[in-house]
Each structure stands twice: as C-alpha cells, then as structure tokens.
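Format notes (please read before filing issues)

Several people have asked whether sequences and structure tokens are stored in separate files. They are not. Every record keeps both together, in the order shown below: the sequence lines, then the token lines. Line labels are part of the format and must not be stripped during preprocessing.
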Amino acid sequence: MKIAQLAAGLTAAALVLTGCGGGDDEGDGETTVRLSIEQDVDTLLPMDSNVNDNISVLDVVYDGLVRYDPKTTKPYNYVAEDVSTTDNTVWTIKIKDGFEFQNGEPVDAAAFARAWNYAAYGPNAMGNNYFFERFTGYDEMQGEYEEDDEGNVTVTTEPTAKELTGVKVVDPQTLEITLNGPFAGFSTMLGYTGFFPVAQECIDDVDACAVKPIGNGPFKVEEWEQGQRLTAAKWSDYKGEETPDFDRIEWTEYSGDSDWADFEAGDVDATGDVPPAEWERATSDPDLSSRMIEGPGAALSYLGFPMYLGKPFDDVEFRKAISLAIDRKTIVDKVVPGQYVAADSWVIPDGVPGGVAGTCEFCTFDPAAAKAALAKAGGWPKGKKLTIHLGEDETQEAIFKAVGDSIQLNLGIPYVLDPTPDFFDRRSARDFDGIMRSNWFPDYPLNENYLAPVYASGDAKKGNENFGYYNAEFEKLIKEGDAAPDLEAAVSKYQEAEKVIATDLAGVPVMFAQNVMFYSDRLDDVVLDPFSGEIKLRLLKVS
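Then the structure lines:
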C-alpha cells in the first residue's frame, strides 16, 4: 500500500516529444512512458499481488474503494461513496454508481465480495489471504492444504465454507462488513491492492486474468510477455477523475540494477536502481542530478532471529550484542550511499501515524556494550560460524556482507552468508539456523502494520511463524489498539506495543530504504510513492 509521499517540489525539465523519435512514440501521436520492473513478477491478480512491482502496475489498472493522498497519506474515497461504522466492528460501504470493468461488467458490491471471498478461501493460496483474517467466517474458509514450488495445491482438509460470513451484499451499491472484533483502522486498509474488486469473468478464468487482468482503472493491459515486457494502453471508457495525460506504458523487465545502462542510453524513462559504483558519479553530474528525486522510503530491512531454536537466539542479551555491533551508518555510507538510512525504530518515523525515530535504544553502534551483552548471553561457541540467511540479491548480499563483517570485527563471531532463492518458503518453514535478513514493506498507513503482521501470533506456545516470538503484553496492546474508539487512540496503543518490541529487541532494525528516482527530460510532475518508491503514474506528465 501507499502513504507518505515524496515528490514535493518535483522539478523536471520538460521536453517535447510526440509523434515519434526519442526512441519512444509510435508515430501516431501517442505518448508512451517507458519504465522498468523486476523480472520476478509472476502475477497481476490483485488477490495475489503483494510486491511493489505488481502493486505499482495494478495501481493504474484497478481502482479501489479508497486511494491515498500522496502528501498526507490519508485515505480518501474513490470508488467508495462512503465508509462508515458506529462500533468499528460492523462497517457499511456505499459504492458509487456507474463504474465498470474494462469488459463492461459493473463495479458493484458483488465485485468486491467475489474478490474478497476468493482471496480468503485458503486452498486458492492467494498472497493476500491474511488480510481477511479480521472478517467473520475467515477460519471456516481455511481448511488444511499444501502448496508446492510450482503453486500446485493439495487439500488435506476441506474448508467448511466458501464465503465470508462477514461480507454481505446488501444491495448492488452497498456492502456490510462484519469483523471478528473492532478495528478502528479498517478503512485505512481498503486502498491496498488486495481489496480491489474483480470481474466475474476474471473469477471464471483466473489463470487468464493473472496475466491479462480485467481492470477498472485508467489503463488496460495489452500484452504481458512474462520476463520480457508488459504494455498497457489508456482505457478510453474510463469514468474516474484521476486520469494520466499520456497514452501508453511500456514496462521492460530487468534483473537487479541492470536497467541503469538502458536509462543512461535513453531507452528507459526512469529508474531507481542505481548501481552503488555509479552513485557518486550520478549524483555529482549536473544534468543527471537535476533529474533526480529522493525522499524517505518506508521499507525496513531488519534482522530476525530463530528464537524457536532457543539459545542463544532467544536471549535478549545476544540480540542486543548483534545490534550494538553493527555500524549502520558506515555500512550505508560505504555500500549503498544515498539509497538507505540507518534505522533506529521499527516504524518509519513521520511516514505513518505513530512512527517516531529513536525507539530502538540498542540500535546505536557501541562495540564495548556489544561485547558486554555477548558476555551476559554466555558468549558464542568457539569456532562456530553464524549464518546470515537472505534472499538472492546482489545489493542485499553486499549490505549484509558488511553487516557480517561488522559483527565479526566487533564480536569475534565468524559468519557465512546463505543467499537462497527460497528465502520466504524456508523462513516460514523454520528452515533457518542463523539470523535472517528480512524486509517489511507496509501495506497501509498505520503503525500497526509494521508490528502486528510481523510479530503477533496469538500462539503462546509456538510464537509467530517466522521467528517464534511471543509476548503476551505485546499481544494485549495490539488488541487494545484494535478495540480503541478512534484512530488516534489506536495509534497510541500501537506505539506502546512498539515499546514492548523495543524492550525485547524482537527484531533488529538495520536500515530504511531511501526512495530515489532518476528520470528522463521527457517527464514532469514526478512524484514518488513513499511506500513503493515507484512513480505515481496518475500524476505524471510525459512530453
């Protein structure tokens, strides 16, 4: 999801380009913007899209009930006419009349209900399934199943229901939502990709819809050659107010920062993937730096610990030792200058309601205190290497090699990196025996979203799925925040919950991403989504 914004004074030298030339237009007067996405995007189904690349594509292909103000991050009604409640448990959503999908089906209450029921049905194995666990009837829709590496699902226990009892279509323009308990922040969630509506034709052929979605937004997907390129054209029958002023979008798929060379060659209009070795040259070049926009990002890189293994990972003194031994600022300055900032909190400061800096007391670099904490924890087994697990990513491997070097230098703990293509599956299967580079990209603008999905479980025996962490006080404060009478009171309770995480050092914040984008002189009004760091395409102007 989105939130804070960056852009601010967006500069941009506008140039003209229509007709053709510049490596861009089609020769028929259409204006095309050329962007890049990662090669690992595997679906465009809203119920299953949860990484910034497919989220940024779907942001112009679909319209949700609400959208987010890029300056204040507050949600405002878009497809929704009104979202109301008297008790934060039962919510009434009025939907504007007249919106349609790109195949002519109406965007009505049934369109949202069918999407949410499909996402919530466990055996469908949708990535956004867990967003519906707050709805009544969710548990009955889960059953038991296994999904293999190819996405094939084997159901061992059939669910007892196929629809959420908490989703009621009152009439074509009205939904009534019943949650398992009060949640003051419910309306803030509704702009997230996982809450977009889908057409009946999409449900009838989900595989086709996953590669060529039937949206209700201003752009219509033309063709997706997976791993190569994706194109979308402006939908002429779009009835919404937020319509970009260009005609086509071409996304080329790249691996890592390999799009930088094509950006410099003029074949791509924008990229935030600056190779670390190119950073100083790019930011000191008068022309390039005049076409750069930057601002605080929202994604947090942090270290998780396999507390389910016991000593030393379940010892807070060991976690303190690791955190205090990491020279975050030097690592950022030397390895990824300008692209990250050292983190000292679990929630992005000033980026979402409740986010403040400095909540992590043990995120300062203090080698002496680190050694003392390690001694309290009983030390580290002589000759044993500490494994740092992480996904396969060249930049992250460079960052966490530096983190490992810092730990080894200041604590005398040798380490080995374990880059793996199956990071998420292995982490959720508790297949790691060392610390884990993890990353949290918030879905909606609320401090709760940095806390509960990462550390809460409700299971005192097993703890949360990835780390085995459990703290009854933390769980209580999250529930009290959910049950607060209004959002302000809820945010305050979630801040108290963050203090519990700080005391336990349940995870170790390492760095927040810094949103950076270089863009061509064809672009103007370049505004970055503060969460994804991608360009807000509905605000962009292309000449």
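For reference, the curators noted about this record: The chain has 16 helices and 21 strands. The chain has a mean pLDDT of 91.
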